Amino acid sequence: MSQKPDLPGDLLALACEDLASAEALDKAERVSDSPVGFHAQQAVEKALKAAIASRDLEFPFTHDLGVLMQLCEDAGFELPADLAEADRLTPYAAALRYGLGNPEAVAAKNALRWAALAIEWADAEIHRPRR
Fold first, then answer.
1. Cys-Cys with 18: which of 43, 89, 95, 114 at CB 3.0–4.6 Å?
2. Residue 131 maps to a domain
3. pTM to 2 decimals?
4. 105 lies in a domain?
């Protein structure tokens, strides 16, 4: 008998790894905010996808946090108000890694705060008893 994979749990664990990476990079002396933003974006992305997967819904393979946040709301989740601007991390997923684009910079402390909040929220939603 094969065991059904725990996609929400696996995604949440990966989100935690990305947050840990972002925190470690934030402490490094010669690292700019951009790599911190990348890992924070990845943490938020995976946390949102974990929540969506917990409802047995499919999610697109996108890095666009605005799209994923909307999918969460469409699925009936109430996102924390403090995550409202987390979609500002979206450019860190790809464009900024290659020096493309010039979006408004996100301070590492904000990126880390959004990542931690997204993980905390998703964990609570995933483990909330269903009615």
1. 43
2. no
3. 0.91
4. yes
Helix (H, G, I), strand (E, B) or coil at 87: helix
- Name the one residue in this structure whose structure tokens are 């402390």: 109
Residue 79 placed within a domain: yes
pLDDT number for residue 2:
44
Which residues have CB under 8 Å from 101's CB, separation 6+?
Answer: 91, 95
CB 111 within 8 A of CB 33: yes
Q: Are 71 and 49 in contact (CB under 8 A)?
A: no
Number of domains in the chain: 1
For the record, the structure tokens of 25 come out as 């990079």
User: Could you tell me which of 14, 2, 1 has the C-alpha nearest to residue 53?
Assistant: 14
Name residues of the chain where pLDDT drops below 70.
1-4, 96-104, 130-131
CATH code, domain carrying 52:
1.20.120.330
* Structure token digits, residue 122: 């998703």
Range of 67's domain?
Answer: 7-126
User: Is 56 in a helix, a strand, or coil?
Assistant: coil
